[in-house]
Amino acid sequence: MEYRKKPVVIKAVQITDEWFDLPRGVTLLHDVRQVGVESCLAGRVYGNVGDWLIIDAGGEKSFCNPDIFEMTYEPIEL
């Protein structure tokens, strides 16, 4: 039997060298080369400039490589 992943709506913001609008409740731990956030399950997670910070429906935070993000997600109209 084969299965398809159900569509899930996420919040995401791409990490840049410039300051950007963060989703409410997200505090960045900024380093010279990496950005970290406190994740619910994994503790502190880190991403690099260009990565996407993803917040899923349960509030879990993770980083995603831009290439993988582009293959996996598409914008939606609210």
Beta-strand share of residues: 25-35%
Order of the strands making up the biggest sheet? 1-5-6
Number of helices: 1
Please give the domain count. Answer: 1
Report the average pLDDT across residues: 80
Instruction: Spell out the helices and strands N to C.
Output: EEEEEEH
- Provide the low-confidence segments as ranges: none
Number of strands: 6
Radius of gyration: 13 Å
Structure description:
With 78 residues, this protein is mostly beta strands. It has one domain. 9% of the residues lie in helices and 33% in strands. It is built from one helix and six strands; from the N terminus they run ββββββα. The chain has one helix at 66-72, and strands at residues 11-14, 29-30, 34-39, 43-48, 52-55, 61-64. Strand 5 and strand 6 form a beta hairpin.
Key features of this structure:
1 helix; globular; mainly beta; single chain; 3-stranded antiparallel β-sheet; about 80 residues
